[in-house]
Design brief:
Layout (H helix, E strand, L loop, with lengths): L4 H17 L3 E5 L5 H7 L8 E6 L3 H8 L3 H7 L4 H13 L5 E7 L14 E8 L5 E6 L4 H20 L1
Parallel strand pairs: 1-2, 1-3
Antiparallel strand pairs: 3-4, 4-5
Helix pairs in contact: 1-6
């Protein structure tokens, strides 16, 4: 999948920043289905920075791969700030990465509820020895547009965590 210029530029900047600081990166993705990792690994030479990617589309996958407590899903739902934070922190804990970014949301067209509309995406960026950052977004557009906007926002949040 070709990425637009903004996403390519953001991915290149994340990789350059990690490389300059000797950091490895990981992703933990749900609604983006691996697109954040795909954007990073589309850049030639990214293998010296990208450690791994977790595509955890189901709650069971999030629990098994990232060790997110099952009770958290019952308490707040998969599309929530606590789960986004736990995903990023779980990716750090289960990888050799120094920074990890996560995304969980509702890309649509279905799956929305009254309090969780289509386009709602929670993104987190965790870095060893620093507080985890979080952003809540409600993106407009179709499924592809929402996912692309989530990828760009996740890369921007990673850059914030790297600064």
């Amino acid at each position: 999948m070709p990425f637009d210029k903004e996403i390519v530029g953001l991915a290149e900047t994340v990789l350059e920043n990690c490389r300059r600081n000797g950091l490895r990166a990981a992703t933990a993705e749900s609604c983006t289905g691996g697109l954040i990792a795909a954007a990073l690994t589309a850049v030639p030479g990214s293998s010296d920075v990208v450690d791994r990617a977790f595509v955890t589309y189901t709650n069971l996958a999030k629990h098994e791969m990232l060790k997110i407590p099952e009770a958290l899903f019952a308490e707040v739902g998969a599309v929530s700030e606590p789960v986004a934070r736990a995903m990023a922190e779980g990716a750090l804990a289960h990888s050799a990465a120094d920074i990890a970014v996560s995304a969980t949301g509702i890309a649509g067209p279905g799956g929305a509820t009254a309090d969780k509309p289509v386009g709602l995406v929670h993104i987190a960026a965790a870095r060893r020895h620093r507080p985890t950052l979080h952003e809540r977004h409600v993106f407009a557009g179709d499924r592809d547009g929402i996912r692309d906007q989530a990828v760009a926002a996740a890369l921007r949040l990673a850059l914030r965590q790297l600064s």
